[in-house]
């Protein structure tokens, strides 16, 4: 299993800024082997970035997706729109979708099911709020989100990656300690192994939440951390490149 180092640009970078970034970044990583690299730009930049990533070692990702192929769903993006652009990954259930836009487990599950149906690889995001952590509910929350998110795909879980992103660490500059991350990642590994009856060996468990070029080398040493979903630090090609290099040290 190759680790996955993924960039989630969120609502940042225009098309022109995305092109400038990729022109720099693809040269930086052209000799990188041993890890898989993914970038999820804004929807408006997907087409331009897709063309630039042809014949590179960088995969293209999307930040969200609706669960219906086509129809009267103003503002939504369908799976066939993504596959047309050679999108390989789609981030689903991100905490900002859950907590700002009110997405529930049932909706996220529909998206995961549809993504797999259309050959897209979901990165299912899970994680607890600070209040839930302080109340000792972290594992309960993570288990609920995973069981609901992959419902109907238990035996096909090898087609899905999971990102543990504690909500309290996203965009705050406060990352989980190595011990905190490992504790939850180990719990997730045991959980999906049990749910899938051992079919989870190709499912990577990524860590997200204020990952940067300074803490990546320590976080990646945790035995059950198998990659990163990087937000703010991925907006700088040099910083994201350093995070990728850190992952190669394991």
TrEMBL record:
Involved in the gluconeogenesis. Catalyzes stereospecifically the conversion of dihydroxyacetone phosphate (DHAP) to D-glyceraldehyde-3-phosphate (G3P). Substrate binds at residues 8-10, 171, 210. It comes from Sulfurihydrogenibium azorense (strain DSM 15241 / OCM 825 / Az-Fu1). One of its GO terms (cellular component) is cytosol. The gene is tpiA. Keywords: Cytoplasm, Gluconeogenesis, Glycolysis, Isomerase. The active site is at residues 94, 165. Pathway: Carbohydrate degradation; glycolysis; D-glyceraldehyde 3-phosphate from glycerone phosphate: step 1/1; Carbohydrate biosynthesis; gluconeogenesis. Homodimer. It comes from the Bacteria. InterPro entries: Aldolase_TIM (IPR013785), TIM_sf (IPR035990), TrioseP_Isoase_bac/euk (IPR022896), Triosephosphate_isomerase (IPR000652), Triosephosphate_isomerase_AS (IPR020861). GO terms for molecular function: triose-phosphate isomerase activity. It catalyses: D-glyceraldehyde 3-phosphate = dihydroxyacetone phosphate. Belongs to the triosephosphate isomerase family. One of its GO terms (biological process) is glycerol catabolic process. This is Triosephosphate isomerase.
